[in-house]
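Dear Dr. H.,

I hope your travels went smoothly. While you were away I took the liberty of generating a structure for the chain from your last submission, since the lab meeting agenda had it listed for discussion. I wanted you to have the full record in hand beforehand rather than looking at slides cold. The sequence, exactly as received, is reproduced here:
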Amino acid sequence: MTPPPAQAPQPSGARRHPYGSIRLPAPLTAVPVPVVRRPVGPPPHRWYGPRIALPPLSIATLRRGA
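The corresponding predicted structure, in token form, is as follows:
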């Protein structure tokens, strides 16, 4: 077998930027995010009424219902 012909090194032209990156005219500055204070007190309840215990579910139980 013959080795493949040697390729000349590619001239370093304009460098490509990674996907999604662009050049910006100036560095970006971070904008401070205002801190939202929560009211003091107990957290709001999302459940109203008694809790009902449910039987454990399995994949077979879910497939039977379909």
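Two observations you may find useful: The mean pLDDT is 76. The two ends are 64 Å apart (CA to CA).

With kind regards,
E. W.
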